[in-house]
Design a protein that fits this description.
Elements: E1 21-26, E2 29-35, E3 46-49, H1 52-60, H2 67-81, H3 88-101, H4 106-119, H5 127-163, E4 169-173, H6 190-197, E5 202-207, H7 215-225, E6 229-232, H8 237-242, E7 248-251, E8 255-257, E9 262-265, H9 268-278, E10 282-285, E11 291-292, H10 309-312, E12 313-317, E13 323-327, E14 340-343, E15 350-353, E16 356-358, H11 362-368, H12 370-377
Parallel strand pairs: 4-5, 4-7, 5-6, 7-10, 8-11, 10-15
Antiparallel strand pairs: 1-2, 2-3, 8-9, 9-14, 12-13, 15-16
Helix pairs in contact: 1-2, 1-3, 2-3, 2-4, 2-5, 3-4, 4-5, 5-6, 11-12
């Protein structure tokens, strides 16, 4: 049998896409537990959130990561905040604190705006229960959007797979945009999972994504899902792309401007530049909630600058199995630590959304999301 005649891998069921959060009820009070991503991949530890302070801390310190999950945690953070005080001042204060926790991800402000619009007309006594209900609705909608992204991305995987003559697709990603970053499925990894369910095998090239090493989260997740992967140094991406050892790049996004400029984890733009030079498609997978039609271009989007200690101090496993911190750069050394960068629209082959695949252009994004575009221009 020649390679051209090799059949596709049989379709198969994937392991359960365990959610990175779960609801708990204790003595009539609702709580939230999240998988503490600052301890992954070394320890699987569930952290209980009891109040607004817990939710703000979890977002700020990246115990929960990924734009959709951050937005969802913001909504649940409002619900947690209102148990003790559901007054208008308390609602406004909670919204302000959560919004400031991580300013770049569009999902956070969108979720906070939505839940506050829903709660503001209600009597204070009704707000806590409705807040939980609205947050649950947001979670279900994001999961459905991610599933749809997977199916639209699957059309691309089928096309690429035909050219591979039955060999596994070679896909590069950056940061973590899998189920750890969403209620389920993920964004950039959703097409990969949909492909596996359809019998299309993929091998993932996963970059470390320093300094927070979010690529290790992708590696942890892929291992649990049974997806082959290779972890690489961030700076190996250019070599892999120019050697054409990659069929396509698929990344997520934290915010997308009206013209198609993409804000994503720092290091994304370097992959886009190398992919363009190598003639390799570069796709962004993101739900419509990531679009910000009020930002005409990437320059209009606030880029979060994080504490320099993230660069100066590294973490790992000690000899006795505990997570340890080790200083690698002196405290007095000036560092620059942006959490995100901007990938110009002209470097993006397409944006995979829940409504289909759009060109990274103002016209096509407005065509695919006319409701959001009209709302901004109104």
């Amino acid at each position: 049998m020649t390679s051209r005649e090799m059949p596709a891998a049989p379709a198969r069921d994937l392991p359960s896409r365990a959610s990175p959060y779960r609801r708990l009820s204790d003595g009539g009070l609702e709580h939230l537990e999240i998988l503490d991503q600052t301890r992954l991949p070394y320890q699987e530890h569930w952290l209980r959130l009891h109040c607004l302070d817990d939710a703000v801390h979890a977002i700020t310190h990246m115990q929960a990561r990924g734009a959709p999950l951050i937005g969802l945690l913001g909504a649940y953070g409002i619900a947690l905040a209102l148990w003790n005080d559901a007054s208008d001042p308390a609602l406004l204060s909670a919204r302000a604190r959560l919004s400031a926790a991580r300013p770049t991800a569009a999902h956070l402000d969108n979720a906070l705006n939505r839940i506050c619009r829903r709660l503001t007309p209600l009597p204070a006594a009704d707000r806590p229960k409705i807040a939980w209900r609205e947050a649950d609705a947001i979670a279900a909608e994001i999961a459905a959007e991610c599933a749809a992204i997977g199916q639209h991305g699957l059309t691309l995987l089928r096309q690429w797979s035909e050219k591979r003559s039955g060999r596994p697709l070679q896909i590069m990603t950056h940061c973590n945009a899998g189920y750890l970053a969403t209620p389920e499925y993920g964004t950039a990894l959703a097409p990969v999972y949909a492909g596996l369910e359809a019998g299309i095998e993929s091998h993932l090239w996963v970059s470390e994504t320093r300094p927070r090493n979010q690529g290790l989260l992708t590696a942890w997740e892929l291992a649990r899902m049974g997806v082959p992967y290779t972890l690489t140094a961030d700076n190996a991406a250019g070599l892999l792309l120019l050697q054409r050892r990659v069929d396509a790049v698929i990344v997520g996004a934290d915010r997308i401007a009206a013209n198609g400029d993409v804000v994503n984890k720092v290091g994304t733009s370097l992959k886009a530049l190398a992919a363009r030079r190598a003639g390799i498609p570069f796709y962004v997978a993101a739900p419509g909630e990531t679009l910000d039609f009020s930002a005409k271009g990437g320059a209009d989007i606030l880029i979060e600058n994080r504490d320099g200690e993230e660069l100066r101090v590294t973490h790992g496993i000690g000899q006795t199995g505990e997570i340890t911190a080790q200083r690698q750069i002196a405290e007095n050394v000036a560092v620059y630590n942006p959490a995100f960068d901007i990938t110009p629209a002209e470097l993006v082959t397409g944006i995979i959304t829940e409504r289909g695949i759009a060109a990274a252009s103002a016209a096509d994004l407005a065509r695919m999301f006319p409701d959001a575009a009209a709302g901004e221009s109104a």
